[in-house]
Known about the structure:
It contains four helices and seven strands. Strand 1 and strand 2 (about 45-50) form a beta hairpin. The N and C termini lie far apart (about 40 Å). About 25% of the residues lie in helices and about 35% in strands. The protein has a single domain (about 5-145), classed as Roll (Nuclear Transport Factor 2, Chain: A). Strands 3-4-5-6-1-2-7 form a seven-stranded mixed β-sheet. It is an alpha+beta fold.
Amino acid sequence: MTRDAKAQLARKFLSVLSTPDESVVRSVTTDDMIWSFPGSSVISGEAHGVAGVMRRARTIAEHGVHVEIVRPIYGYSGVAILLHNTGEKNGVVLDEHLAAVFSFRDDKIARLDTFLSDVPIVEAFFGPSSTQRTPQSSQTGDVRHEPPKRASNQFCHDSGDAHE
Length: 164
C-alpha cells in the first residue's frame, strides 16, 4: 500500500467526524479497529470496532467540531495526520492541535491513536465521562475509559523551550 493510499484512507476516515457514516467507516477500517483518545472526557478511552468508532464520531459531530487537516506525516508503515480542531459549545472554545496516528493491516486502518496538545481543554469542551466503563468484548463496539499510568516527572521535564 502506497503512502498516498494510506493518507487517502485516513482522510476518508476523518470525514466521518463531521458527517458520521457507518458505510465509510466499514470501507476503510478492519472489523477489530481500535481508536485511542487521551483524557477523561466522554470521548476518551479506546473505541473498539465500527460501533465504538461510530459512537465517538457521532459525539464529535454533535459537538460541532470543525476538523481541519493540516498535513500528513509519513512513517515507515503508517501515516499521521496533523489536525487543527476548533469549535464552541456552551461558552467553551475548542482550539486544539493534534496528531491522528494511523496503523494499517490488510490495506485498511487497524488502529488510530490520537495525540492532543491540550487534554484539559478537550475534557472541558466534551465534558467528563458520565461513568467509568469496564472493559467489554471488542465485538460490542465498546469505549473503554482506562486512563494510562503517567510516568514520573523526575525523569522528564518539559521546560517549554524545546525550540531554543
